[in-house]
Amino acid sequence: MESREPQEDRDLRGPGEPREPHEPAEPRERTSHGSRTRTLILETALRLFQERGYDKTTMRAIAQEAGVSVGNAYYYFASKEHLIQGFYDRITQEHTAAVADVLARERDLAGRLRGVLLTWLDIAAPYHRFAAQFFKNAADPDSPLSPFSDASEGPREVAIALHRQVLAGADTKADPELAQLLPQLLWLQQMGLILYWVHDRSENCERSRRLAERTSPLVARAVAASRFRVLRPLVREVTDVIAEFVLPAAAGATARPASGKTSAPPPPEHG
User: Fold this and answer.
1) Predicted TM-score of the model (pTM)
2) Any idea of the CA torsion for 124, 148, 235, 174, to the nearest 10 degrees?
3) Which residue blocks in the chain are alpha helix, DSSP H?
4) 80-250 has the same fold as 30-78
5) What are phi and psi of 3, to 5 degrees?
6) Angle at CA of residue 230, ends 227 and 234, nearest 5°
7) CB burial class (10 A; 0-12, 13-18, 19+) of residue 266?
8) Which of 56, 87, 189, 216 has an alpha carbon within 20 to 30 A of 112's alpha carbon?
9) What does the pLDDT look like over 131-167, one tens digit per residue?
């Protein structure tokens, strides 16, 4: 089967100049050209989603506004859902870059968490108008737009890695058992904030910002408290429940090493 390539990339060659099998494909030029086309389509789609709404925007309309053929639009994005995945990738990358300064100067865990959450709200602010339409699709567990789907694995893992960095550079250290799941837990906290933000109708989403401000110190205190000996049985129960029910896909990678011991509370100390 002949491999597919964007029409505009094929048009770069002159008439009667087919590429020989041994002819270099000029990967840098083609990659740059393809990247520009992909970015153009994505930016056009996001603009139309804002102007017309997600459900009322068609791939044909996106292609027409971007000045490319419908076939080329489908070459880069197989569906509108894939466009949203492209949006996820972009906002995740922008968020990671934007918080670098905060993480470089801040060592207090509450401050690091606050900076990550508030920066996400800043990055996402231009897309708040149509965020509810995204969530309507993302809430379907069978949708590729679900944050737990295989299709969302890329941006999800980048976000979890960011929270791993938040913890690694903080002065506050967690109980070793809880520490294995904390990056995923912090990502879930961010997902909860996003859900609240989607439905936030306060001016400039001020209530979402206040929620981030209020919850960050609470989470930091809970992380610090997890090291207390008296809380270890509870910590074990929490990590087991999360691994089994909340993040089953991550359970294999984050489960505690087998030690032959159960998670039952330790025997009471005497004396």
Assistant:
1) 0.74
2) -40
3) 7-10, 27-52, 59-66, 70-76, 80-98, 100-105, 109-124, 131-138, 153-168, 176-179, 182-198, 206-225, 232-241, 248-254
4) no
5) -70, 145
6) 80
7) exposed
8) 87
9) 887 777 777 778 777 888 888 888 999 999 999 999 9
Residue with tokens 């029910």: 245
179-193 per-position pLDDT tens digit: 888 999 999 999 999
Considering the segment(s) 30-78 as one domain, its CATH architecture is: Orthogonal Bundle (1.10)
How far apart CA 178 and CA 239 sit, in angstroms, is 6
C-alpha 42: how far from its chain's center? 17
139 SS3 class: coil
- Residue among 99, 209, 222 nearest 165 (CA): 99
d(CA 174, CA 225): 8
For the stretch 234-247, pLDDT in tens is: 878 877 887 777 66
Q: What is the CATH number of domain 80-250?
A: 1.10.357.10
Quote the tokens at residue 209. 């910002």
Residue 204 structure tokens: 């400039």
What sign results for the dihedral spanned by CA atoms 217, 220, 226, 230? negative
Q: Which tokens sit at 232? A: 């270890």
- What is the distance of C-alpha 119 from the center of its chain? 14
Domain borders along the chain are 30-78, 80-250
